[in-house]
Design brief:
- The protein is of the alpha/beta class.
- The protein has two domains: 2-167, Ribosomal Protein S5, domain 2 (2-Layer Sandwich); 191-508, 3-Layer(aba) Sandwich (Rossmann fold), CATH 3.40.50.300.
- It is built from 22 helices and 18 strands.
- A five-stranded parallel sheet has the order 11-14-17-10-18. It has a four-stranded mixed sheet with strand order 1-2-4-3.
């Protein structure tokens, strides 16, 4: 006898429907799974046999063939246990066949006692089922809310017997409610905790308002990492579409969503020993990296020159396009990677070049080699480059009550973002993503401002991309002030924060 039910699988961060076909034939008892199953799928045979018997059903002592189509794509995961078991029951006459076999997408891992355990990647698989026109999802109870987030009716079951009873209409199961993203309870790290560093805080506010990449340069202990970790608290919350997009990425990678949905933007801080695959993506099969996990949020690279050169160079395309393309001999994929880059570095190997109290022990060639680890083209993609100076004892000992809190800064950021949303709509959400045509139209400059920009261009040999980024930063500064046109003050501050007040040193410099 032949039975056919539907399930789904994940490739990259996207789900796709999988047809689970089961055939019972005469012959010596055997259980064969075809369709490029991985080890976890092959081992489902033992789980299914035990779950059927321990749930009070019989495993047919016949030749069983399970085909997972499309057969050219490798199937991974444990979500096929439940559809295989229910398909066997239908093929052997233990469960009445009906329209449920074509209406529902089934997934779940079976324990040996028949309990249905949660699986990873439910969100992208539910999206694929909805696109396929499925009427609903039969999933583990722990995954029901996650599947319901896509809008498809999701029915959570706790055991194989519950699933069979629901499909045979002997038991009613209420569809899971669609989850609501939790509102932000305030930033985890407050800007008021950072004492002094007024210029760096101003740069952080501008970066948050316009979505600009930012680099902090300074000796150890000056607060570079503290400043970067407070950037997410200045950003607006994600909307529903962005929240679902980020949750879909996390679900595809198997990250737990037990804490519920959060509208707070992601913050990723990989260690400088991260490999190219871990940072950008890759492997077999192709999996997304940190740049995709930071999508719609912040990617923080501390000790920037300590990252491998190939890793840093691989960031250049995602920073421009917002996409990470991974091509391998056996697989290829393209992942979303629209993030803000925040980075921190020391001015030299010992860290004390330019320190007012400690002498630098590095030679000029050592400093040049250290800074050359970060290429000029990558520096050119960083809008704001800020020198963070050591804090005096008086500033460190001052009362922190006078420092501005993140909430106050965030209010100004939200007002500037609202101006940009009205200006661009959803196509270009921030000034940092402004197209060249929009820039010419939306960034009118006074004659003095244009003359200053021309002087900077000639003196420091600024590239066309560098000039565009200065103008976009100036546009953000004007938005924070509620000004329609750019004057010389906006451009001057943008030039200073771009690190152009001094000629660049070897390797890009600051």
């Amino acid at each position: 006898m032949l039975a056919k039910v539907w399930s789904a699988a994940v490739r990259g961060i996207d789900g796709y429907p999988v047809s689970v076909e089961l055939d019972l034939a005469n012959g010596l008892p055997n259980f064969v799974t075809v369709g490029l199953p991985d080890v976890a799928v092959k081992e489902s045979r033992e789980r299914v046999v035990a779950a059927l018997r321990n749930s009070g059903y019989e495993f047919p002592c016949r030749r069983v063939t399970v085909n997972l189509a499309p057969a050219e794509l490798r199937k991974r995961g444990t979500q096929f246990d439940l559809p295989v078991a229910l398909g066997l029951m239908a093929a052997s006459g233990q469960l009445a066949a009906g329209d449920w076999m074509g209406r529902y997408c089934l997934m779940g891992e079976l324990a040996l006692d028949g309990t249905v355990k949660p699986v990873s990647g439910v969100l992208p698989m539910a999206a694929a089922a909805r696109a396929q026109g499925m009427a609903g999802m039969i999933v583990p109870k722990a995954n029901a809310a996650e599947a319901a987030a896509t809008g498809i009716p999701s029915f959570g079951v706790g055991s194989l017997r519950e699933a069979a009873a629901f499909l045979s209409r002997q038991m009613d199961v209420a569809p899971a409610a669609r989850p609501i993203a939790a509102t932000d309870g305030g930033p985890e790290h407050d800007l008021s905790e950072v004492k002094g560093q007024a210029r760096a805080k101003r740069a952080l506010e501008i970066a948050a308002a316009g979505g600009h990449n930012i680099l902090f340069v300074g000796p150890p202990g000056t607060g570079k990492s503290m400043l970067a970790r407070r950037l997410p608290g200045l950003l607006p919350l994600m909307d529903d579409d962005e929240t679902l997009e980020v949750a879909r990425i996390r679900s595809a990678l198997g990250h737990s969503q037990a804490g519920g949905w959060s509208a707070r933007r992601p913050f990723r801080a990989p260690h400088h020993t991260a490999t190219l695959q871990a940072l950008v993506g890759g492997g077999v099969p192709c999996r997304p990296g940190e740049v995709t996990l930071a999508h719609r949020g912040v990617l923080f690279l501390d000790e920037l020159p300590e990252f491998k050169r190939e890793c840093l160079e691989a960031l250049r395309v995602p920073l421009e396009s917002g996409r990470a393309s991974v091509s391998r001999i056996r697989d290829s994929a393209e992942f979303p990677a629209s993030f803000m880059l925040a980075a921190a570095m020391n001015p030299c190997p010992c860290g004390y070049a330019g320190h007012p109290m400690k002498a630098c022990v590095c030679t000029p060639p050592q400093i040049d080699r250290y800074r050359s680890r970060v290429s000029g083209p990558l520096f050119d993609r960083i809008d704001l480059r800020v020198e963070v100076s050591p804090l005096s004892f008086e500033a460190w000992n001052a009362d922190a009550g006078g420092e501005e809190r993140s909430e106050a800064v965030r209010e100004r950021v939200l007002r500037a973002r609202a101006i940009q949303s009205e200006r661009f709509g959803r196509a270009e959400r921030t000034n940092a993503r402004m197209s060249a045509s929009s820039q010419r139209r939306l960034c009118p400059m006074s004659a003095d401002a244009r003359a200053l920009l021309e002087s900077v261009s000639k003196r420091f040999a600024v590239s066309a991309r560098g000039l565009d980024r200065i103008v976009r930063v100036a546009r953000t500064i004007a938005d924070l002030e509620g000004r329609a046109s750019l004057d010389i003050g906006h451009v001057s501050e943008a030039v200073q924060l771009s690190g152009r007040e001094q000629p660049e040193r070897a390797g890009g410099g600051i």
